Amino acid sequence: MYQGQSIRVSKLDGGLAELCFDRQNDAINKFDAATVKELGEAGAVLAKAGDIKGLIVTSAKDVFIVGADITEFGSKFQASEEEIAGWTVESNKVFSAIEDLPFPTVTVINGVALGGGFEMALSTDYRVASATAQVGLPEAKLGLFPGFGGTVRLPRLIGADNAIEWIAGGEPVKPDAALKVHAVDAVVAPEKLRAAALKLLEQAIAGKYDWKARRAQKTGPLKLDMMESMMVFETAKGFIAGKAGKNYPAPLAAVTAIQKAAGKSRDEALKIEGQAFAKIAKTTAADALIGLFLNDQLLKKKAKAAGKIAKPVKQAAVLGAGIMGGGIAYQSASKGTPIIMKDIADKALDLGMSEANKLVSKQVGKKLTPEKAGKILAAIRPTLNYGDFQTVDIVVEAVVENPKIKKSVLAEVESQVKPGTIIASNTSSISIDELATAVKAPENFLGMHFFNPVHRMPLVEVIYGEKTSKEAIATTVAYATAMGKNAIVVKNCPGFLVNRILFPYFGGWSALLRDGGDYLQIDKVMEGFGWPMGPSYLQDVVGIDTSHHVGDVLAEGYPDRMSNKEFKSALDVMYENKRFGQKNGIGFFKYETDPKGKPVKKIDPETEQLIASVAKAPKKEFTEAEIIDRLMLPMIIETVRCLDEGIVETPTEADMGLILGIGFPPFRGGALKYADTIGMKTILEKAAQYAHLGKLYEPTESMKKMAAEGKTYFPK
Questions:
Q1: Residue 250: what pLDDT?
Q2: Burial of 528 (0-12, 13-18, 19+ CB in 10 A)
């Protein structure tokens, strides 16, 4: 009946038709502009056919439809609000045409049906899902909300309260949970899916199910009286505003759109959805979060390419069995790579196994059965000797952050492993080229910087030295990926990528405290900016002693702008007073433990006195803009330096390193994306205002050139 590039319509026996999504030359189905156009054409063919009694909608892929084609959003959202609203209204006519076909319709959800894919399913009268499927509307994670009728059809189908939870949360939903709220009408085993859908369709044709009543439910107004409406929407808005905050406007905008459209018919409601969607599509949050999704795809693509030249890692080892070693061992074993954990003391091995045991125990009953938990722990082999190191493919050295000790351990382990074994040092600051002098095969040596806590932090920096081979880099990236981590490849330099960029931010903070800044106000402003914690709190979490040590390394590496000898800082005075942060219960804040054993931050009156003792000006309040600029400009400029020097290959990897490694506000997209949002000319003007503060605020030549040419790091 119809054949396109992504859709075909065929006649089946008994007067039935099948609309099948089967995107040519692709492993998945997604909604791009061409597919929406084809759906419109297919719908028109079906509407004109006079001999069709019912329709099933299927997919020829392992998934149903993964969602919209996000690569099209960049150019599409450059249009005006009015044009975007018009596009959504026109697109929705296509889905409404399917919904208005003069016979019953059933969607067969055989796999993932997310975003536009699930909205497609909502436009049919019934949905039958495989027990292995997944449905949902994840647009909120992109700073958006559904624009193909999701805010209209879903509330009318499952109730406004359930729909708000689905749309605002953006989480995928398992079939049984979807069945419980009537988002799907049946859940069956994969092999019975088609037969069950055809049976349901035949029963609807026979009048056993009132498909016209179901359709009327979705195309009419929401059935809520005034009191119910007020209760549902106002409660939801209060809760979501508190949870999402001002920086993520999409969830609240979705609730407002559902509320505004509640008393309207479908077509009127869809116009309201379109106008609200257009407004949200133009926000900087949507721009940044869509960019993050695409950035993540690039990291995955690079990891896949690395996997093609990597040597297989069937057995790993970690040297050093403390909290870090135990965390690395757990991460490796839990993702399927067995690991030997070696140390020189039983006490250390006990600590490492205790850490792994604790992490496994937390998952039992949630994600792990006791049997799987046992298998993970059995895949970690603690040892005091090198007995089985001949079987190892990669060794992660995670001993104390001391170059002398690390070199000794690296030389020793190299003599115990087979030729070609990759040796990776988990270091946060020591030069990879310096450490490489301890090994005979530097081509097999590199850095593998895990962030603490290992099981939570998604980033691993893979740092290559002058002699590291491409195979060693690829193998380490592949191993990090197998561990469930995002690996970013970084050229060796003091501080590598993340710490090198973070410490100029700390430099801006130190100078602000020196000039009379209030540490509590600064923390509050930067948390309002979107950081998970302000700089003083972050120093306590990192560890004042650790930060002080890394600061020394960076001061030596970049004396022109990161020297710590110009003035005695608040960090120095905390370090001298052995206030090391959370690790010993006192830093810029003091810490008490809650009943669950988690540290709770408290204000300590002595902190202000200690900061005042090294301040060069009396305490005063700075404007929010001044605080943000004095901390963020050095970070942006240092990120650009890393890019200019080839420390990191792309703006994407630089920004993802900051988001995954130190919690840079995702809705701002990273330091370079944030620079694009502000505009390079504005960045240069702001930097000029703070030129008197030194080289941290001195923009690079590439930044000046970019401003002159009107270019950005992430072209639209």
A1: 96
A2: middle
